[in-house]
Design a protein that fits this description.
This is Oxidoreductase. Helix 1 links the parallel strand 1 and strand 2. The protein has 338 residues and is an alpha/beta fold. The protein has a domain of 220 residues: NAD(P)-binding Rossmann-like Domain (Rossmann fold, 3-Layer(aba) Sandwich). The chain is 36% helix and 17% strand.
Length: 338
Amino acid sequence: MTPAPRVALLGATGFVGSAVLRELAARPVRIRAVSRRPARIPDGARADVEVRAADLTEPGEMAAAVADADVVVLATLYSAATSTWRIEDGDSSAERVNVGLARDLVDALAARGAGPLPKVVFTGAASQVGPTDKEVLDGTEEDRPAGEYDRQKLAAERLLLDASARGVLRGTSLRLPTVFGYGPGSTARDRGIVSAMTRRALAGDPITMWHDGSVRRDLLYVEDLARAVVAGVDHTDALAGRHWLLGTGEGRPLGPVFQQVAVLVSDRTGKPPVPVVSVEPPAHAEAGDFASVTIDASAFRAATGWAPTTPFPEALRRTVAHLADEAERERRAPGGRP
């Protein structure tokens, strides 16, 4: 019998990677879940899951992680303690992860020699395009990244797509919008804006915005994102050689989104909704923080058949419920606040 395909999932305990692991684990495949700390095998997994704890920045670890893999999903991400994406110019540790691991992956796959080309799916970011006058992005924009994070993600993407063009691998990049939320079996912390403001509301603090609330974001629920990444795995041959944008096609004003969060938290706690207020932006704010973004993902949808299926109110409700449960557990833990 032909063995089931082996998928090396790099970054398997991260916010995106752990959701992809749950989605892949429902399939009859072999998964090598690679991360610094051991990944948790999802409940009811059909897949044969090998858990590998490794620091991929160490010599030889990348080659071992992707040995005999038919598919590689590169979902690793360097982040500072306070943010999922902001990094300082010249941060060599960030470059080593965000760019260096892509370089190591290309080198490891190039060393294989003859045989079927491995498929590689990279999780990029819609923000890689940089500042633009377009409010609706469709993937045809010229990339002019402004921040260090976006420059590093673009550099990694180009390494992989160049390797695809040279016949080292069959690679594609999926550029993610603002991803948020929790679903059944969630194991990784979401430090994005929606969950951050939900945590503030649960603590009884005002929800704060660096603008008047009219700034729009294309908010993609994490479970829908995981299905998109797996659709990318299924259709890598059709997607290879270029980047594709993911999104819902709807830019939601953040003010009303945060008002919904305040009401959902109030329903859960029985307390009045916390206020949603505008505050002065901090010194580290960037131009992109004040730009509205909507994603036209019609090209990816046409190529794969994927579409987001979770209604936004339900995704928001699940997110608030999960974080409220988390806060309750913390209060009940020894030493927790009353």
